[in-house]
Design brief:
By secondary structure, the chain is mainly β. The protein contains two helices and twelve strands, in the order H-E-E-E-E-E-E-H-E-E-E-E-E-E. Strand 8 and strand 9 form a beta hairpin.
Length: about 180
């Protein structure tokens, strides 16, 4: 039995590699009741493991949030997202494309501006979504892009708003064979 398990594990191990990367990200703005909730210049880092034609990745992202209304702006604080993604990838020489699922863990938003406005902390929903993926490998280096269809509910002071984030994450990193 152990020999049979080893027989199947060896080819999989030969196809396994680990990646580390830095990321830049953009998220959509949400218009709600005369205001705009905007999240600018996301940045972060992550790690991935690829086995066969599948990739499991975890990325930690950080966005600065702003509430914009009537030409004024207030800080929403920092939004932290941690997408955990599982992607099926199809390879074409050095390029690849894929699709998969993600679970996005989100932090709450809080700032002195929200407290002063009487809004208080804003809870942002953690949830699952689908994703699209494409990238290029050049030797050990790679450039990877992911679109996450993440549209969470947010709740503050009894009001609910669906955030139209839909992050696009562009990563650059290194891959190593195990």
């Amino acid at each position: 039995m152990a020999a049979l398990a080893l027989l199947f594990a060896l080819p999989l191990a030969a196809q396994t590699d680990v990646g580390v990367y830095v990321s830049g990200a953009r998220a959509g703005s949400t218009a709600a009741e005369g205001t705009t909730l905007a999240f600018d210049r996301g940045r972060g880092a992550g790690a991935s493991v690829s086995f066969g034609s599948y990739e499991l990745a975890v990325t930690s992202l950080r966005y600065d949030g702003a509430l914009r209304f009537d030409g004024a702006s207030a800080s929403l604080g920092r939004l932290r997202l941690v997408p955990i993604t599982l992607t099926r990838q199809w390879r074409f020489n050095h390029a690849y494309a894929g699709a998969g699922v993600a679970y996005v863990k989100a932090s709450e938003l809080s700032s002195a501006d929200l407290d002063a406005a009487g809004i208080g902390p804003i809870d942002v929903e953690s949830k699952a979504c689908w994703l699209a993926n494409a990238g290029v490998n050049v030797g050990r280096f790679f450039i990877d892009g992911k679109y996450l269809n993440y549209r969470p509910q947010s709740t503050a002071a009894g009001n609910r708003v669906r955030l139209d984030l839909k992050p696009v994450v562009l990563s650059f990193g290194l891959r190593f064979k195990l």
